[in-house]
């Protein structure tokens, strides 16, 4: 039954395309990336217009202080974090422990992760890439990097290493294409928003209500 | 079951009577158009981006069967499953089957026009599955028991007061403050996301070489629907595929600016298959449903196939004077506006009013706005030709006969001049006669002594004047 | 130079003053206008009903009438666009197609003729008015002659152009559309008129007779003291 539908559809499509189509009218190669260098100045300028806040750390120590200050300022009691080398580079686990934040260990996560994170204050992640042209955080799911971490808790802190800055989306897609795609790759530009009621713009519909980015200038 | 065809003329007259909805629609659409214009203006290379996107869409359509096979292989390799459906009905049954077999009771849905096309919510309800729309606009529409009026902003026609009343009735908690209302919806929907047995989303672009389902949104509800529940079902129509990530990049270069005036939406998600070995969340099962519903026949139609380039950005709706005035519901179809007027009559079911292609002022604002290079006026012209072939249009035939004979044509005009004062009266007593319809909002201009009878004397006089000047 | 006048049926029988002004403008531009006998209608109304079969005989008549013209000038963007479309109505191998192409290539909307063909933008016209330009979809988007209209009006002495809120917006006429869908047509033309009123103009100018008729007769129904003028009337100034 299922292959019957498939065969019928593909059969019709083959017949429809058999005669050949006129050649496309323009080259289909992607656009060259925009000019300029990918740096924190450009990235932060766009990012902060979209809702998230940004802070640049020049050393691992500064990054730890930034994270600790954020935890204190936002009354963070519980957190969940990704298993990611950039988090290790700033010993994020130690900072959380020192601040007496209860961190849910991966093995403590329930069978259904998202409901388990509903009451958690903060998710800490690092990015695969960050895009300067659009202020985007590119998050890649993997073992130890749950999709729910940057999505379900009320706050999200993302660490962005300087070496992960790229110019724009076409550059990122080209880079991503060199390896197998992760099960989920999320390119997030700003804080969730809607205009569905009378086109009035409202931020914080789903997902975290606030996003804070710490730039790692040495990494 | 015999269904009488939808009557756009009646439905639009009725819609135009609803002043409040019209005013809201106007304001909202004006707003989207300003945003779009601003973003397109800010991209000096938009025409080149557009040319590349058209080329990618055409390349895709030319090798569609091959790309769908590649897509299936890639999705399968990534742990997902691909299903084909010939009609909207079989697609809905198929989805209901997948969910029932797994005992799913609660489903969260991200906005998807394909799901509307399938009438999925009704089918799920019939088998006892609660399907909750999670896009805020779509959620409002669902709570109100209505249908979307725009392909991107489904609740474009609803006022905040109406939303406020609706929330009071449904949640016993309300406000007239829009951010606060959004908060109420967030709280209610969050429970659904966390408890859902499955998530159903649409698919803006499917990437064949990687098996990736790409979705764009601002709210984050699609990302949640594809990430939290243990089952993810993505719905697409078969033309939504592109070959490579690079091709996807070309389409992504124009889709957000044309749709909402953004460079990128807040959430651009690439879902590839099910959760991998060692991952603790993400769907354990991922299904991709590919719907035909008449599109393979459109591809076989060289005169009309370019409508399959459409990337559903909504730009043609936003600039169409008819859509802007009457709103989406008057069309009685899933897809309204210019793109809907072209594609609806070609889909297997719910073709709407057979005369829909005539409900057009020929202003060509749609083709000018379309980032996919679709020439709607030409396509509508072809559709009108096909409808006209099957009927006798007496007034047009008569007029054309007269126009072939200048003496008769002039004679008819002379008769018209004699009757001229009476025509006004005809309009008054027969407001539904063609003259009457024209004159409802217009003063009769009157027929004049023909120009050709004035020309000779005029030309002579002008010549003299000119000679005098020289 | 000589040019044949192509006078749309709407101008012939309802708006003859537009034909007169067109004649005057051409004479002023040093062109001798000829009016070939036996003109009726370009067939646009049938074309837009999807009846190319009914347009073909009219296209043949037209091509015969204008075959010998050095140039054909028409005070209507939509009728000019229709003639430009004639070749596409005949099969590739139909010998008539070539003749249709020749005639189509030398047929111009008035403003287009003055600017593109004669290279004239300043006709020395004077018109003391504050006016809004209604671009007309057929003249601008379909025919691509919008910039010629603008260039000509920019040189008219005494004319102050004020912008419309949505200058690109259709006036809602659409030929048979205004009869088949009177409510929608009314809604669209009312908005156009609202925009004109808000602009503060004393007159609205367009290069398209059907828009002119639509807007003028709807303004008359509302008793508005705003004039509706064809481009030719503005360029003719006191010339007639
Ligand atoms: S037809 Fe063009 S403008 Fe309309 S929705 Fe499709 S892509 Fe957008």
From TrEMBL, chain A:
Coiled coil: none annotated. Residues 41-214 form the LUD domain. Pfam families: LUD_dom (PF02589). It comes from the Bacteria. SUPFAM superfamilies: NagB/RpiA/CoA transferase-like (SSF100950). This is LUD domain-containing protein. It comes from Solidesulfovibrio magneticus str. Maddingley MBC34.
From TrEMBL, chain B:
The keyword Transmembrane does not apply. Keywords: 4Fe-4S, Electron transport, Iron, Iron-sulfur, Metal-binding, Repeat, Transport. This is 4Fe-4S ferredoxin-type domain-containing protein. Residues 300-331 form the 4Fe-4S ferredoxin-type domain. SUPFAM superfamilies: alpha-helical ferredoxin, NagB/RpiA/CoA transferase-like. Pfam families: Fer4_8, LUD_dom. InterPro entries: 4Fe4S_Fe-S-bd (IPR017896), 4Fe4S_Fe_S_CS (IPR017900), FTHF_cligase-like_sf (IPR024185), Helical_ferredxn (IPR009051), LUD_dom (IPR003741), LutB/LldF (IPR004452), NagB/RpiA_transferase-like (IPR037171). GO terms for molecular function: 4 iron, 4 sulfur cluster binding; metal ion binding. GO terms for biological process: lactate metabolic process.
Automatic annotation (TrEMBL), chain C:
GO terms for cellular component: cytosol. Residues 5-83, 132-215 form the Cysteine-rich domain. Pfam families: CCG. InterPro entries: Cys_rich_dom. One of its GO terms (molecular function) is oxidoreductase activity. It comes from the Bacteria. This is Fe-S oxidoreductase.
